[in-house]
Amino acid sequence: MITLQQITRELKEYDGREIKIMEVCGTHTSSIFKNGIRSLISPKIKLISGPGCPVCVTPSVYVDKLVDISLKENHCVLTFGDMMKVKGNEHSLTEAAAIGGKVKVVYSPLDAVKIATEDANTQYVFAAVGFETTTPIYGILIDEIIKKQISNLKILTSLKTITPALTYICENEKNIDAFIAPGHVSVIIGCDAYKELAEKYHKPFVVAGFEGEHILAAVYEIFLQLKENKACMKNMYISAVSDKGNMQALSVINQYFEPKDDFWRGIGVIEKSSLRLKPEYFQYDAGSDFDEYKESPPKGCKCKEVILGRISPAECPLFAKQCTPLSAVGPCMVSAEGACGIWYKNRGRE
Amino acid sequence: MITLQQITRELKEYDGREIKIMEVCGTHTSSIFKNGIRSLISPKIKLISGPGCPVCVTPSVYVDKLVDISLKENHCVLTFGDMMKVKGNEHSLTEAAAIGGKVKVVYSPLDAVKIATEDANTQYVFAAVGFETTTPIYGILIDEIIKKQISNLKILTSLKTITPALTYICENEKNIDAFIAPGHVSVIIGCDAYKELAEKYHKPFVVAGFEGEHILAAVYEIFLQLKENKACMKNMYISAVSDKGNMQALSVINQYFEPKDDFWRGIGVIEKSSLRLKPEYFQYDAGSDFDEYKESPPKGCKCKEVILGRISPAECPLFAKQCTPLSAVGPCMVSAEGACGIWYKNRGRE
Amino acid sequence: MKIDISYGSGGKQTSNLINDIFLKNFDNEVLNRLEDAAVLDIKGRIAYTTDSFVVTPMFFKGGNIGKLAICGTVNDLSMMGAEPRYLTAGFIIEAGADSEVIEQIAHTMKIAAEEAGVKIVAGDTKVIEGNGNVYINTSGVGEILKEGISIQNCREQDVILLSGNLGEHHAAIMSERMGIENNIASDCAPLFSIVSDLLENKINIRCMRDVTRGGLATVLNEVSESSKCRVEIEEPSLPVSDEVKGFCNILGLDPLYMANEGKMIAVVPPEQAEKALEIMRNNHYGANAAIIGRITKGTGVSMTTVLGGNRMVDILYGEGLPRIC
Amino acid sequence: MKIDISYGSGGKQTSNLINDIFLKNFDNEVLNRLEDAAVLDIKGRIAYTTDSFVVTPMFFKGGNIGKLAICGTVNDLSMMGAEPRYLTAGFIIEAGADSEVIEQIAHTMKIAAEEAGVKIVAGDTKVIEGNGNVYINTSGVGEILKEGISIQNCREQDVILLSGNLGEHHAAIMSERMGIENNIASDCAPLFSIVSDLLENKINIRCMRDVTRGGLATVLNEVSESSKCRVEIEEPSLPVSDEVKGFCNILGLDPLYMANEGKMIAVVPPEQAEKALEIMRNNHYGANAAIIGRITKGTGVSMTTVLGGNRMVDILYGEGLPRIC
Amino acid sequence: MCVAVPGKIVEINGSTAKVDVMNNTCDVNIKLVQAKIGDYVLIHAGCAIDVLSKDSAEEILWMFKELEEEVHDNSSADH
Amino acid sequence: MCVAVPGKIVEINGSTAKVDVMNNTCDVNIKLVQAKIGDYVLIHAGCAIDVLSKDSAEEILWMFKELEEEVHDNSSADH
Ligand code: SF4
Ligand code: SF4
Ligand SMILES: [Mg+2]
Ligand SMILES: [Mg+2]
Ligand SMILES: [Mg+2]
Ligand SMILES: [Mg+2]
Ligand SMILES: [Mg+2]
Ligand SMILES: [Mg+2]
Ligand SMILES: [Mg+2]
Ligand SMILES: [Mg+2]
Ligand SMILES: [Mg+2]
Ligand SMILES: [Mg+2]
What we know:
The complex is a heterohexamer, with 2 copies of chain A, 2 copies of chain C and 2 copies of chain E.
Chain A: H1 4-13, E1 19-25, H2 26-34, H3 37-40, E2 45-52, H4 54-57, H5 60-71, E3 75-79, H6 93-98, E4 103-105, H7 111-118, E5 123-130, H8 135-147, E6 153-160, H9 162-172, E7 178-181, H10 183-189, H11 192-201, E8 205-207, H12 212-227, E9 233-235, H13 247-256, E10 257-264, E11 268-277, H14 303-307, H15 331-334, H16 339-345
Parallel strand pairs in A: 1-2, 1-7, 3-4, 3-5, 5-6, 7-8, 8-9
Antiparallel strand pairs in A: 6-11, 10-11
Chain C: H1 12-26, H2 29-32, E1 38-40, E2 46-53, E3 59-60, E4 63-64, H3 65-78, E5 82-94, H4 99-116, E6 119-128, E7 134-144, E8 159-162, H5 168-178, H6 192-200, E9 207-210, H7 215-227, E10 230-234, H8 242-251, E11 264-268, H9 273-282, E12 290-296, E13 301-304, E14 310-312
Parallel strand pairs in C: 5-6, 10-13
Antiparallel strand pairs in C: 2-7, 3-4, 5-7, 8-11, 8-12, 9-11, 10-12, 13-14
Helix pairs in contact in C: 1-4, 3-4
Chain E: E1 5-13, E2 16-21, E3 24-29, E4 40-44, E5 47-51, H1 56-78
Antiparallel strand pairs in E: 1-2, 1-4, 2-3, 4-5
The complex binds iron/sulfur cluster (2 copies) and magnesium ion (10 copies).
């Protein structure tokens, strides 16, 4: 059996052509930082953070709408903690709370049921962001709302799907050599989803878990495939990820949601890249259809280039100057899973 | 011209039969205490505090209703500061505020207009207590509500009139020798109101202002009348009080209010002793008609005897024992103009 | 800029708030070290006190909550015959507060601390949910110049001096709240200079107390209770400005129960009363000082009224009007 | 009994509250005199600090806000090499609070103060509008046992000790809030006995700091900045209980940024590191103490990860989750 | 509860007047009285309820004169 | 954002289960999985999204074995 030491030695000593590997999922980005993975591999192997941080890709008009709702009389926004700091065009939810908006951080969408039941005089809106991992849970939430006839709870959705985004990148960004496919999204959608992509675009797709060992193994697998000029889908998170995914969860998604075109902050509109409530459930939607995305990217912000792996955050001229976590120019600096923010927190490492 | 010194010497030296003078108005009660009037006159001249403290005579069900309103979702009670501490059957408004009730202290009923206009989502209820002095101001308030079409402001009334109460006392309490008539109620109703009473019951009625000198002069006037066995109405507050009163104010009262029987805490029901909104204005009333007054006077409380001048507060067995301003058994201990409370604060004077 | 809840996290935003506002204004070598605790250079016996400040509105004629927070603690130290030396300042800030407002409060504190001769050597900042209110706790230590000054010390025949007009802080605050226009300014002031004048002139002070929440009535009842004596005062000698009298008439307030923030009583032996009065009057903050009464045998506080009557002056029950200091 | 706004008036109700709850529990001859300021019996150089406590919920496994208020201030004094002696306590109570709850908090403070060997010698009580929350400010003074302990003092090669497991206070609070059941109790504890053990054994402590709001990451960054050095730590040596690890996994928390209320770091010369570790481990509150890293040349805080990688440990930005101390 | 205080009207705007009470100015509703600038009015709960015809000092003098007369009448009746 | 954590089901009440994560017990919705007491599930945002087939240590061993084989295959292909 190969050892971790052998893997890291080989990855560290690599001195061939530059390899660009995109980890799509924000949780991978975060784990790479926390485990100091970059320090364990050759600088010739670049790990690039893709568009899999939902906070980073959520359009600012969506945040604006949440802010507006929070400030309405007798309204309250329920959200995961991650969304609190993201700026809309004017305010973040944290700032909205400071000027009188009502915002409550919850751990699970299902907590909303209890909260709304206990306070019938407030109209609650859940900030339903996320990828396929989280969408079935919103499905269960709608289920509960219907069954329990809860009239003061709706969701405002910004739900992305990962395959259209991957297709977009494969089509448009030729410089990415391989992908670490998201672990928990794959639990739901299954790893078959990447087989076609791997074949069509001739890029390795490795499904990985979130321990440092998982990530190093995935990088090594990619390293091996590239060395052999292979381009396979490889599932290295077999404890959780199956070929077809979680059929039960997928059927909940299909029951309540349908695909729609959607806007990705920093990227633009990607076809059929989101899930919206089906028309028959519109009464549970707090207005998730945005006519236009007034998204002029913040002046000077190179988020798009960062997310697509064209530059590293440090190459953005604003990085650590005008743009810091406390005065973030782009969303990638503010999210806990954003590439620029993680880069910033790791500055000064020799 | 007679001097203050002469008056006080004569009043101090008096040693004839005991004289009982009732000051009807709570503001007189308070001024008598603040000026130390009792220390300036003979103990044979007893000054008795009548039922003219609106806080003392307001039934506890009225306070209960205010407390209930304050605790209702999106409701807020507006009140003068004086009402805050008075107990209903369970809570005072101060206590209601501590358990989440919304209560706001205002200086004038007319402040309510601005408050209600600025916050259309809250239903405001003004605690309209008082005597004839204050009733015309509630009339002006209703006028404003109508003109400005304010839909979130009503009044809950407990408005007393003084002459029925005086008639009741004259009929039932033979031991009162004379009355100091209220100064500011008389500004509105005029001093003619007391002529008939003075004659019918053969008791001096002196209308007095609120300075210490006013009160001493009134006591002296009564002293002179009793000495001569006279029983006249005498107006000693001529700067403000006329024979017929303030006709403009009286017409406002008549426009909006009509007399009704009413319950006086400590006394019972007195015929036609209150003013209620006329039926055509019921939409501005927050439910001032109380079917029944569940008023069992607090156990052991001698409020009735105190208010009617049968005993002094110190003669109540609970006084300064179970009953103190912080653990008041009866309302007379809690109000700033209540006889027992004032007596309590003056305890220890030799 | 609005303070939001993240300014209380203890992380970067908290430290920015501390650097940009508090360190900038309170600037001194002890505080700047940002240790867990300040190390003080102090000699002799020490007086030590604390107070929290929660006034609404936070800004008013004659000062703001920051000035109160300095003067209140400085005065409590002074009343024990101590020279105020070092303060701590703990800020509890409700989300929604403007950083500009906090800056203004801190700046006022800086100026007040300079006048009072004290340094703010330790601080703390927390952010809670709310509507932008700011609450300040200060504690203070001082060097005792004269031992034995105590509220338990008053003796029969001693004379009670009051350093100036009653009710001005209370009236200033309530005027803002009730929208009544006048020129009444809070009397908020540091009183150590009066104390130091009295001590330098060898006045054998029995007891001092600043007249704050609860007013003169409360302070005199505390004297009566702690020294086990009767306090007798004369209503005509109580200094109250006409403007404050008018204000009290409008709202039905009694100056005896109204808060000051720059007034004190001093109880002195009868033979030194006139001299003490003169010293007080010569001090900028004691111009309207008066002899208001004396200590006798018995209990409670009694007052001879303007009309020559007599009545008791009890402490305050319940709360007349919303809190003002 | 619910506290209403009249309990903050400064009148009879305020004094009843003070007598019935605070004087009863904090009972000592200095406080009982109820002077404007306490007069202290203290010698030598003095350490002085303050903190406010605003934790939600107020009661949690392992303690309550009152215990925090005592330990927090006692620990800040201890970290300067001082023996904690006297505290002040300022209560800001929101209307609606139960007097029974306040009594319970005061009683806990009494017990914690006894354990820590401090007396509460001055206090203050204010009542504000609100929903029954209680906020406490404490300040403290202590006698410095060893001079020169300072966050600016760390030198290259010095070794960093941590007195025990990370994150337990934070996890205990968050467990209550999130309804997660476990046996994690707040580590809230007075640390003076560890300090005193180290000093008695002649450990030449460069710097100490209690690990509170902002967590170990924040404290180490403060060390780096104040001592102008790099701090290097080893992830595998950081003591974290499995239960806390599991808890962190559930909520996505990082023990490096989590608050403790009974943990400290001590920076000592390399040759005394092992001895210091042994002393810590022999103390009841230091059983899980560990050497976690050292001081080197440079800036910032870097960490060798479990996998042998290396990364920087920055301070906290914004606010991960609602405040917990 | 029927506390009232005298003040001098210094300005009138429709049914509201600015009234001066020993240098304290407040807004007072004057719908219940016929008042002009310079008048002294009695203010209760934010409303003028009366125009005063004398000032307090004058009134107190008048009272003592009245009482003097009554005493005089009485004592002469005694004889 | 797609953070998830494995935990062991210790109790089931209808569609809710008590799940143990290193001695931390929390309530988890299990509508998206077929799970029984004793199963290890992956918990995301209060929901079990998967029943785990291996434990983490096992999986990591398996990965290293797989990689060993691949390296082996590759190097043999080299020859
Ligand atoms: S550093 Fe800031 S401005 Fe530059 S790409 Fe990142 S988020 Fe945008
Ligand atoms: S002392 Fe108390 S119980 Fe007695 S009559 Fe007065 S209010 Fe009633
Ligand atoms: Mg599976
Ligand atoms: Mg008239
Ligand atoms: Mg500390
Ligand atoms: Mg104090
Ligand atoms: Mg004070
Ligand atoms: Mg602090
Ligand atoms: Mg004081
Ligand atoms: Mg501190
Ligand atoms: Mg601290
Ligand atoms: Mg105090």
